[in-house]
């Protein structure tokens, strides 16, 4: 006997079509037109200049995509992500940069002082090394001149490579379970956030 499938009303079909369309539809999002519940500020409760505007562009079971408006003079917060973070931005109109922060790697904000050049200079300036040299005064002079030149080269390099102070947008992409751990010295009690970081 031939069975006839039960008839589905048009309302059921339109809901199914809408769901399929949302899952397969190409998206073009203007972050500045997002509703209030998809945007806000980070860093406003933290002492110092840490504010940045955030916009949730995409939030689903596979990714969390956030656009951040970075304002000159405001400094990010040191943090890490359980499953890593892909970050895309432009240093200027023609210099795109894509960064991958691996799972658990602390980034953003101002890192602690780690300078291999300074460590090498400390070795040159070490009292034991100076005393062991044939001419301690000359060793001390060479080390101080070298230190001054290296600092100047660092200053010139920083001036020539950093973009002019201006607001810019970066796009950060997180992956499940979307966990961020804040480990900044300006945040007295570190915290772990799942999903978008509201502040």
Relevant terms:
199 residues, alpha+beta, Jelly Rolls, 3-stranded antiparallel β-sheet, 4 helices, 29% helix, elongated, disordered N terminus
List how many beta strands DSSP finds.
9
Quote the beta fraction: 15-25%
- Going by helix content, strand content and strand pairing, the class is alpha+beta
Shape: elongated
Number of helices: 4
Low-confidence region ranges: 1-19
Q: Would you list the SSEs in sequence order as H and E?
A: HEEEEEEHHHEEE
| Sheet of most strands | 6 strands, antiparallel
Query: In order across it, which strands form the biggest sheet?
Result: 1-2-3-7-5-6
**How many domains, as an integer?**
1
User: Which percent range fits the helix content?
Assistant: 25-40%
pLDDT averaged residue by residue: 77
* CATH architecture title: Sandwich
CATH class: Mainly Beta
Radius of gyration: 26 Å
CATH topology: Jelly Rolls
Distance between the termini: 64 Å
Brief overview:
The chain is of the alpha+beta class and 199 residues long. It has helices spanning 10-24, 116-125, 127-132, 136-161, and strands at residues 39-42, 52-59, 64-70, 79-81, 85-90, 96-101, 168-174, 179-182, 191-194. The longest helix has 26 residues, at 136-161.
């Amino acid at each position: 006997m031939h069975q006839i499938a039960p008839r589905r009303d048009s309302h059921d079909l339109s809901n199914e079509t809408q769901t399929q369309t949302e899952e397969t539809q190409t998206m073009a999002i203007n972050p500045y037109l997002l509703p209030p519940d998809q945007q806000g500020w980070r860093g406003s409760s933290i002492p110092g200049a840490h504010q940045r505007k955030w916009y949730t562009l995409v939030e689903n079971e596979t990714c969390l995509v956030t656009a951040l408006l970075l304002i000159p003079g405001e400094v990010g917060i040191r943090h890490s992500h359980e499953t890593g973070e892909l970050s895309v931005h432009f240093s200027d109109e023609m210099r795109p940069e894509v960064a991958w922060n691996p799972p658990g790697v602390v980034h953003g904000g101002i890192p602690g002082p780690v300078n291999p050049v300074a460590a090498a200079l400390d070795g040159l300036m070490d009292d034991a090394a100076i005393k062991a040299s044939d001419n301690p005064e000359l060793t001390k002079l060479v080390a101080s001149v070298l230190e001054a030149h290296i600092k100047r080269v660092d200053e010139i390099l920083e001036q020539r490579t950093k973009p002019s102070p201006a607001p810019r947008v970066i796009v950060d992409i997180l992956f499940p379970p979307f966990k961020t751990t804040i480990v900044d010295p300006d945040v007295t009690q570190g915290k772990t956030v799942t999903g978008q970081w509201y502040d």
